[in-house]
């Protein structure tokens, strides 16, 4: 595909005028939350240092060194996965589907070895998850050919600034995770009842902020890739970033809440449908209803909508509805459901989180076992989110490719990859 020289005037109609009250409110809430969390972390860290110096019940070195080392490890793994995907997307895709169950299983075994009630509960989740991942990898094996082709087409060309920004987002994720971990450590040092609430709030902040970092990358990169696929031009990177921060931040904050929640609901509905199969029992009588609800609510909040959030500055709900309607109109709905990009990025996060959990958990298991459970779980969460941020560029490229095709299937910018796959699915599902 030929890319023309960089331009700052993309030939699309931008909606830069009004944002909804909800978007503005959510944006302001995020900024206020960020300030309050910063104050809380500084307070907890200082209080934890003073408390550990007086009581000596909490050993900062044996808690902080493993968790911060595993956080740094998460950043290294995120950089590595990002690089492997860029250089050889086909092999990285296949390797991820087979390595993720192995790392998850190893993490589950580590949790069993720790032997606390909390670690045993978490180990059950990890081991069951590893089995389900293995079954899923076998089930989707025939889809790898199409997924490889789409992945390769979507990330073939990226301006250097995009790659640098992706790396910068990983670095920011490492810093923010380490900052929140210091606050969690301070709360752990005193272990009062209210500290449990503080830790919960910090984990919520970690989840939301990491989602926002990921989705800022999603909006920015998908805008740039969309203009390449739809118009064959390269837009000015600074203008795209400025537009995203100035006009789309509210939609990104809202979408960072709505999209993951709806994705979990839709995933649960599809899981119920798959488990029920053709069994006509009371237990599975609502499977069809669940699947119907899942297929409807996905239209109101999905990752594909972030493309229109960046390009047209729409709200996430309107953008999601518009993109999903285009998919339906072009007969792409089943193909989107069968797309493996989201599964690939999710498994990258799971594998990265498991590696971090293994590093932090093994370290504390041999140095101070009483910290092993919490350090393992916190390490897993930070590793998971950092790797999801690392894969945002890949997910954005694939989303832009599908949305650009749905808007103009006759464009000369596209080959027969999507029509061939749609026809293949129709024959398979007939």
UniProtKB/TrEMBL annotation:
InterPro entries in UniProt: Choline_transptr-like (IPR007603)
Keywords: Membrane, Transmembrane, Transmembrane helix
Pfam assignment, any one: Choline_transpo
Location of this chain's protein in the cell: Cell membrane; Membrane
GO cellular component: a single term: plasma membrane
Keyword GTP-binding applies: no
Membrane topology recorded in Swiss-Prot or TrEMBL: Multi-pass membrane protein
Transmembrane feature ranges: 28-51, 63-84, 96-114, 120-139, 166-185, 197-217, 252-276, 344-366
Domain of life: Eukaryota
GO molecular function, one term: transmembrane transporter activity
Function description: Choline transporter.
Family: Belongs to the CTL (choline transporter-like) family.
Protein name per its UniProtKB record: Choline transporter-like protein
